[in-house]
Amino acid sequence: METRMLNVKINGRDYQVPEGTTILKAAREYAKIEVPTLCYLEGISEEGACAICVVEVKGARNLQRACLAKVGEGMEVWTNTSRVREARKLNIELLLANHPKDCFTCEKNQICDLRELAAELGVREVKFPRTRTEWLPFDDTSLSLVRDPNKCVLCRRCVNVCAKVQSVYAIDIAGRGSNSTVSTFLDEGLGNVECVNCGQCLLVCPTGAITERSEIPDVWKALGNPDKIVVVETAPAVRVAIGEEFGMPDGTQATGKMAAALRSLGFDKVFDTDFSADLTIMEEGFELIGRIKNGGTLPLITSCSPGWIKFAETFFPKVLDHVSSCKSPQQMFGTVTKTYWAEKMGIDPRKIVVVSIMPCTAKKFEKERPEMKTAFHHLQEKLGLKDEEAFNDVDYVLTTREAAQMIREAGIEFASLPEEDFDKPLGESTGAAVIFGATGGVMEAALRTAYEVITKKSLAKLDFEDVRGLEGIKSADVDIDGMTLKVAVANGLGNARVLMDQVQKGESPYHFIEIMCCPGGCLGGGGQPISHNPDIKKRRAEAIYREDAGKPIRKSHENPEVQEIYKDFLGEPNSEKAHHLLHTDYCDRSCK
Amino acid sequence: MIRNQLLVCAGGACITSGEKSVKDVLVDELKKNGIEDEVQVIETGCMGACDLGPIVVVYPEGTFYQKVTVKNAGLIVNEHLVKGRTVGELLYTEPASEKRARTSGDIPFYTRQVKRVLRNCGAIDPLSIEEYIARDGYFALGKALEMAPDEIIRVLLDSGLRGRGGAGFPTGLKWKAAREAAGSPKYVVCNGDEGDPGAFMDRSVLEGDPHSIIEAMAIAGYAIGAEKGYMYARAEYPLAIERFECAIGKAREYGFLGRSILGTGFNFNIEIRIGAGAFVCGEETALLRSIEGKRGTPSVKPPFPAQSGLWDKPTLINNVETYANIPQIITNGAEWFRSVGSTKSPGTKVFALAGNVQNTGLVEVPMGTTLRELVFEIGGGIPGGKKFKAAQTGGPSGGVITAEYLDMPIDFDTVKEIGTIMGSGGLIVLDEDSCMVDVAKFYLGFTVDESCGKCTPCREGTRQMYHMMERICDGNGRDGDIERLSKLADVIKDTSLCGLGQSAPNPVLSTIRFYEDEYRAHIYEKKCPSHVCKHLLTYSITPDKCVGCTACARQCPVHAITGEVKKIHVIDQSKCTKCGSCYESCRFGAIRKE
Questions:
Q1: Domain extents for chain A?
Q2: Is A51 at the interface with chain B, CB within 8 A?
């Protein structure tokens, strides 16, 4: 059916917009007029809470919320009358009267929507007395995120993202009126509820009310300790986003500059998580092949994304046997560094500090999981270590934002740095590993390897277009020498839930499923730079696939360093040693 | 053989003043006299005259006994029923004429009323479906089921019935929209989340005549094409919930609810949903979320519930009093309904009369009745010979009607013109001792507490207004405060998301409109003309009236008064907490309050 076009007058000019268009969309897209918003996130947070986007509609008694009010035939809209401007300004003032004035030290200082709005609307004084008389306590129960309720403007973007995009429902509004706060179940704190630490709430928070738990001081301390060998690993999605922090165009491939910058910061070795991503493909690919050949539990589901893992443990504990036992690349990397590399280099693993730079906040939680001390357990007997000397495989996790902050603090001119390479070994990677950063990437990488291992033939076309792109759920039938492998890819936990409901009911038609916690995959992770570009995920994904296309080796099993580690250390993929070091198990976190 | 019936008012107020024990005494005394088989005791819904409770009416005579206590209840049995002598001391005495009223028909409080919505309240046993049927109950449902749905809606449109919840939207249009909306299933909801301070119209109907609501909801279900209804009641109304639940059970038993009602193939059922005490859940979109089990926060309209309501399905939502009108309109027709009331607001309106008025309670009058009739004829005027100052209507969303409008006919439109609203029917009478700034502050405080907190203007704006009002009442008002209040009020009205926020500034705006001089006195002269605002009061002793009795000094809790016996006393202003004890204790009028 053809959409009816409606005539609308905005600020005196005539436009035609399709029926069902909101005033906001009509103004922004058709009239190219900016209507400021605060609580609005298209398709996610459309509640009309902030009352900033109000506009005057002829004939309407009250100002209308542009984000919710739909255009009607013959409607006359005014977005810029003094009544509108005064109302917007006053509502911002009301919010500011209830907001701490510590912008200088606020983490969101340069990217605060509230500050930006106040500036844009010309708020030059707050005529109202301060309403907050005592400070509310922080929620610092989470290993990944910290919430400062004092900076919260109750826009509900975080609540809606958690519920509608991630289907986690860890946070909601509690209390009434001016006592309302964003809270968790019984105010237990994010660390004690179903929160999966994805940090999507942080990305959409317009103020500094949600930030990551910073590990910058710890890393500076380690770098300054001459007794420590501090190595850094960088996740695939970091290199296509970190440039944004330094004013480079969206979608810049900054791999070489990033390596150079990290070396300048004083890391002893600059390694690449992409190496262990290739390792993951070997382990997971062989796990898949094994399950198919031996009639094991299918579909097999990927396990790289710690937010997804906690989600599965919380909401789908009965079907955890579907989830691959492979550790995530970050954790494989930590283990391999403190075992294989330490042994190879003759270094006491206790002296090694592994710092990983991740697009992710959930990785901060993951590294603290009690299972993630494999290197210690592996070496305990050999080195005669006491239980209290236990160390994590990965010591510190920095988000992309934190890494950029350290680079800024060190006065490094990121954009003008010459490009450098990663250190070897543990620095070599393939195109298959790079694409881990985008939704569908793990699937594509696994298919490249599985195809060649199963068929022993060379794959003619490496690009599996069907599993690329930002749609929430993608599926494909892949022909492997006459056998049809049915695969699906989900990004965002709301989409994961759809596929998991099928799995739980025993109705999943797939053999292999890739799930990434964050929308877009890791490139859209909660640790990434905060961007106002609606196409940012697309730009970052393009950069990732460009990086893949430019790699001389694009299949994980062809990574010479990976081949070497199997030859020298692990034996075969899925060998007993590989299982011991590179695989893990999961626990039931559902409420009982 | 029953020869007499004792109707005992079991409305909320009468229960609080001891109705249960009175009833027990009556039953005991009947037994003692061996006439328990001849006299039936029936507990009814609210009879309306709350300050006269507990009330017992003896039928068939209709003798109206008021303020019955455990001590004198026995007289009704032993004197009236056994010896046939009216108990004079329990009759109501009209203060003006000092005449005793034998029946409610002799009491002006009742004679001026037109009972339609409340016709069964206090007249029947709400737990008895038979008594409801005996008063033409469920006749309308039977009639409606023989009509085409559009015909029913036509009758409603012709009747001109407007929503009694407060806004006065034409009910027929709502029904029409719900009928025409695409989507299935559809729902019928009854808004029984009556929350305005002092209002209890809906509670009385639910407690006193629950079947009328069930009947109306079933008719609504048939008219719009719904099979499921929800009664949303406040948790604070346990008796209403209990009686309504009982009525649902009876209606099912009798086939007025359930499958194929009256053999027509029309199915309808009602479920009760109990609120959790949030005022904002009286706002329809918030109420619907609450029924869905979600946090009760309002959402922007459109879409209206008729298009997208409960679980995004077309939903008809009306207030209790609106529904209570429906069966009678169907039975008697649109013309009958229009025979009372004003042209644009036909029918009656129930008011909860409270405040500084002689007779408080529930009154039902034709729309267009003047405030003077309500306050002076039905309400019996202001106690203590004080002067009438204003009436507050519409609760925290409303404003005041001042003395100059005493003769204005009250309906949806007239009150709007003077800056207040009809609201659900709360009517609080204020006498000359009321401080209008303080009254407005009270209502604003209520909204600050009850704002859901969703939208900025309501959450942050109302409390900033409240701070200003507090400052003004505390004697810290500043030049420009009236303008600041008005400006903030305008933006809150203009940009709040729901009716609660949009109307929250009304009490302040309305009092500024009519009593700006009082605001100015508070702000500029630091005086409260009505001597209410504590911080603006000074107590002092008039030397030539003080006899030195020491009563005031002995009463003062902070020892602010000094003076020897038979000598003039003095108040130390720096110590005085303005509690007023001295003022109360002085028998010589020597304490001056200003």
A1: 5-80, 95-212, 217-582
A2: yes
